[in-house]
Specification:
This is Ionic transporter y4hA. The chain crosses the membrane at residues 12-31, 37-56, 68-89, 104-125, 137-157, 169-188, 219-238, 258-278, 290-313, 319-340, 347-365. Keywords: Membrane, Transmembrane, Transmembrane helix. Pfam families: Na_Ca_ex (PF01699). It comes from Streptomyces bambusae. There is one protein chain. The protein is mainly alpha-helical. It has two domains: 1-64 and 212-240; 70-207 and 241-365, NCX, central ion-binding region (A middle domain of Talin 1), CATH 1.20.1420.30. 75% of the residues lie in helices and 1% in strands. Strands 1-2 form a two-stranded antiparallel sheet. Helix 6 (168-192) packs antiparallel against helix 11 (284-309). The chain is globular, with a radius of gyration of 20 Å. 46% of the residues are buried.
């Protein structure tokens, strides 16, 4: 047996075993107070599940092609994350009033600044200039901006209900608008103008993986199932280690909102790693599809879900952002527009986005 064949068999073996082991670890740890060694084991399972999720997402993407591949990963992880948010809100009562807002805003900042900035940095370091489709990226950013404003900014200024909250009618409108606009974006991305969201290959021609034989339908279906298992393990194990994170945050005297930021960072690791790997292959548009697609899915699926759940959830639902976060959102939108409009970016644009993310993380620790 050749070394290459043995390496492929080993890779196939661990990407099947790790998601299953991670799911077993989740089953044993869910709802329990874990000692230090158990937390370490769950954290290792979490890291393994992230790597497995990225592998299986790439297998599925190679089979179905872009932009369907990035769409599968973005929607899958968001659906599981939304289920977790609704579950936590159902169990937490009034203390989870801001959970949906904090989680969605953290996802927007991490995707639109962290994933975008890191991808541009990686691509620019490799090719000097990162090239992508301005039409597709600009349309995605416009949709993200609209949904974020409708769902996270307007509640601060409406007057039908005290505080930064929507009235039931306003929440219903925001839910329908979010779901409708997200559905329209998916239609444009995958049917009407799919070419706007395909990678722009420069320099050395198509990436090497373009010439590789696509996996069989059976292999792709197996990877799709293992991708879902991996993502359940990622989100669930992130929740399992959250009490340890909460204790560490409390011991350090940091604001409680830091917990949500840390969990969001963990949950978005699969998209981040997949986007960086795509950027290294000169497929920056795939990276931007992942970033903006994840932000859109986070808003477009979370708001309708909590609107539906609010029928039986007790306690307030706070969606409106404070002044600091609105400034950061506005800065993200303006800089994002200046980045995507030319269809080309350098190290500078990537660095600017990373600085905005750093400001968000710093202000979460020191508001």
């Amino acid at each position: 047996m050749s070394t290459a064949t043995a390496g492929k068999q080993l890779a196939s073996y661990w990407t099947v075993v790790v998601p299953v082991v991670s799911l077993v670890a989740l089953a044993f740890s869910w709802g329990r107070d874990l000692p230090g060694p158990a937390v370490a084991v769950v954290a290792l399972c979490l890291a393994g599940a992230v790597l497995a999720a990225v592998h299986h997402a790439e297998v599925v993407a190679h089979r179905v092609g872009e932009p369907f591949g990035s769409l599968v990963l973005a929607v899958a992880v968001t659906v599981i994350e939304v289920a977790l948010i609704v579950t936590l809100m159902a169990d937490g009562g009034g203390k989870t009033a801001t959970l949906a807002r904090d989680t969605v805003f953290a996802a927007v900042m991490i995707t639109c600044n962290g994933i975008v900035g890191l991808s541009l940095l990686v691509a620019a370091l490799r090719r000097r200039i990162a090239v992508f489709n301005a039409e597709g990226s600009g349309a995605a950013l416009a949709a993200v901006t609209t949904l974020a404003t409708l769902s996270l900014v307007l509640p601060t200024f409406t007057t039908s209900k005290p505080g930064p909250q929507f009235s039931p009618a306003q929440l219903a409108f925001a839910a329908v608008a979010s779901l409708g606009l997200y559905g329209l974006f998916i239609t444009v991305q995958t049917v009407r103008h799919r070419d706007y969201f395909l990678p722009v290959i420069t320099g050395g021609g198509p990436a090497a993986d373009e010439h590789a034989e696509p996996p069989s339908a059976r292999a792709a279906l197996l990877s799709l199932g293992l991708l879902l298992v991996s993502l359940v393990a990622v989100v669930g194990n992130a929740k399992a280690v959250s009490p340890t994170i909460e204790a560490g945050v409390a011991d350090a005297g940091l604001p409680n909102a830091v917990v949500g930021v840390v969990i969001a960072l963990l949950v978005l690791l699969p998209e981040t790693l997949a986007a960086v790997r795509a950027a290294r292959r000169d497929r920056v548009q795939t990276s931007l599809n992942l970033a903006y697609g994840s932000a859109l899915a986070s808003i477009g699926l979370t708001i309708p879900a909590i609107a539906l759940a609010s029928v039986w959830l007790s306690g307030p639902l706070v969606l409106g952002l404070g002044p600091t976060h609105m400034v950061l959102l506005a800065l993200t939108v303006v800089v994002g527009a200046l980045t995507v409009v030319p269809g080309r970016a350098t190290l500078l644009q990537g660095g600017v986005h990373m600085v905005i993310l750093a400001a968000y993380l710093f202000l979460a620790v020191s508001p």
